Amino acid sequence: MVRPITTRQRDILIAVVESYIATGEPVSSGTLAHSAFANTISSATLRNEMAALADAGLLDQPHTSAGRVPSAEAFRLYVSQLNSSNTARTALHSSIDSSFAGIAGQSALLERTSHVLAALSSGVGLAIGAAASTDLLEHIHFSRLAPRRILAVVVTRSGLVRDRALALDHDLSSMQLETAANFLNEHFRGWNIDRVRTELARRIESERSAYQQLADAVELWSRAIPADTAQQQAVYIDGVANLIGLPTDRDRLRAMLSALEEKQRLIELLNAYIDTASSSVRVVFDLEQQDPSMSGLVLIAAPAKTSGESSVAILGPRRMNYESAINAVGYVAQLLHRIDSDNTLTT
């Protein structure tokens, strides 16, 4: 627990954080006296107060002769007191709205989300959503690779293409594969991926004797789109290059970039910190507890509350514009929820 601080110490701490965000350099009492307080507080007084803040765990001193830098706890306190103006929020929201104009389909929306958040924060924009359960079938095709080996290619309305090699217990001819694909495309084009499985199960109970092709279609579909597909999540990332210039050692940068490439680790990271029951934006400074490679980075994330259980986030250095980043994540999450709700009402 951080010990209580006085109002003046809080003002000094905020000034230190803002100076560090602006320059990236340790902040000295002399610099602070001149730049933040216009010499209304002496350098000696600031030095004493900064020493007290260091004792409270809010400031660190990287070198004996250097100034002070904010600790993770200092950034938490700084974020808690942010209160942006209505004008700033309105301008930001208007810019985000323009960026999403004309975008349709969950995959396209999530891809644009990662791009917009990366551009606004100069960090990494992240968006995670259901991989298939909320998408619509456009076309499915089966090809015979070898006896009892089939290639299934599924194309969705959002433009996503998935292929899967299937191992069957018995062989199917090219004609049988074409018949099964034709049946699925004729009856289920434009259907929600999850609804296809449910409807096939219903039909096979009532029509098994009349349609052998239906039995083949059911088996092929169940293997091409497994029942656990609804639990899979797609990850959209943009802005990784923004982390290249961070002041970090080469090994840690390599580990950080490797973690970003392993999308399952990103899913686990967001799931560990996002409370889907809450709509609030969460700011996390101690990511290394979940993943050591994320040391020194900050996660700003929120659930989007869409039918596909999406979430959006910014992953960036501690030196960022927190006011803009927090507002952007919160508003994009609300925007995706609103778009999803509108689409649900019109379908």
Give a short synopsis of this structure.
The protein has 347 residues and is of the alpha+beta class.
Structure overview:
The chain is α+β, with helices and mostly antiparallel strands and 347 residues long. It has three domains: 7-80, Arc Repressor Mutant, subunit A (Orthogonal Bundle), CATH 1.10.10; 86-131 and 233-346, GAF domain (Beta-Lactamase); 137-230, Enolase-like, domain 1 (2-Layer Sandwich). Helices cover 48% and strands 17% of the residues. It contains twelve helices and ten strands. It has helices spanning 7-23, 29-35, 43-55, 72-80, 86-100, 106-121, 174-188, 193-207, 212-224, 250-261, 263-273, 322-346, and strands at 59-60, 69-70, 124-130, 137-146, 149-156, 161-167, 233-238, 282-284, 297-303, 311-317. The strands form three sheets. A five-stranded antiparallel β-sheet has the order 7-3-10-9-8, with helices on both faces. Strands 4-5-6 form a three-stranded antiparallel β-sheet, covered by helices on one side. A two-stranded antiparallel ribbon has the order 1-2. Helix 7 packs across helix 9 (212-224). The longest helix has 25 residues, at 322-346. The protein is elongated. The mean pLDDT is 83.
